[in-house]
Amino acid sequence: EKGGYEHFMLKEIFEQSRSIRDCMRGRIYPNEGRVQLGGIKEYADKLKNIDRIIIVACGTSWHAGLVGEYLIEEYARIPVEVEYASEFRYRNPIITEKDVVIAISQSGETADTMAAIEMAKEKGATIFGVCNVVGASIPRLTHAGVYTHAGPEIGVASTKAFTAQVTVLTLMAFYMAQQKGTLTQAKLVELLTELDCIPEKITKALASNELIKEIAHKFKDSRNCLFLGRGSGFPVALEGALKLKEISYIHAEGYPAAEMKHGPIALIDEEMPVVVIATKNSSYEKVISNIQEVKARKGIVLAIVTEGDTEVRKMADYCIEIPDSSEAFLPLLATIPLQLLSYHIALLRGCNVDQPRNLAKSVTVE
Ligand code: F6R
């Protein structure tokens, strides 16, 4: 059942090139520059004129929502707010019939997310679901939706469901851009052609497994760990930190790299590992100066870099390479080494990787 892997989590991490491929199947037509999302096609016209989107979710799914915000705003130019379902439901949020709410949930059973949906529905919003478990409660509550099709996720820490959620949100962003005309046909052809190659790039990113296993030895006795990223690398940092704390019980925090100097920099000393998303994209130079700030205080830097990078390599203590890609697809690739890192650290610490203490696969209580 674990397909030869020692744990479900490892199996699910290694399944990601396939699960992302499954998620895109029948939905992208790269040569035509076209996205087809059968689940929300009845709302295709509505999407041309919406003023804003609210994304509600919990935990890892909330992190996928933050990536979605970045992509939808960038490509479809629709304002997006991302809310923790538990906070949203207990406020008195302003929601109208013009709003589209996207609820993201692997299990489709999360109590807070369900309650947020019910409230938004009562106020007249259109609700889309992004769920993995077919026929679960959330897909039944929503008006329409797009399944992630990642297959059953057994490990309590979400891995392949997260990358599938990000894939669906990427498709939704391109679909909305197509409806609104905010991307040219040529640009859509280019982006979808690249997206089509992401599963192969995931396989390449997974090839760092042995290297990551070695690096994990250096980090296994840490008591704290900081994860930094900018732009769409920021939600990746949050997700990296959540994975590490969930399964290894090391305290970890994700931060926007530039926020470090507003507080967390006080934590940095020779015992503080800092994982930095430092790939070659629009914030590359800025991240380099953030790494210098960490090194100046003797922090230990593990950088996730673009294949062939030489600049960051001069400064960082450890580097893990991922294939080059447009910024749009960075979260899908940069997440892979962080999943493997937390897996190997947890294993070395003797933790129960698939069933971490105090956690449940679906949180059906508020
Ligand atoms: C993290 C994790 C949790 C879930 C959260 C939401 O690895 O598994 O943070 O992401 O409980 O669950 P779903 O997506 O089922 O609503």
UniProtKB/TrEMBL annotation:
It comes from Pedobacter lusitanus. Keywords: Aminotransferase, Cytoplasm, Glutamine amidotransferase, Repeat, Transferase. Its EC number is 2.6.1.16. One of its GO terms (cellular component) is cytosol. One of its GO terms (biological process) is protein N-linked glycosylation. It catalyses: D-fructose 6-phosphate + L-glutamine = D-glucosamine 6-phosphate + L-glutamate. The gene is glmS. One of its GO terms (molecular function) is glutamine-fructose-6-phosphate transaminase (isomerizing) activity. This is Glutamine--fructose-6-phosphate aminotransferase [isomerizing]. The active site is at residue 361. It comes from the Bacteria. Residues 43-182, 215-356 form the SIS domain. The chain holds residues 247 to 612 of 612 of the full protein.
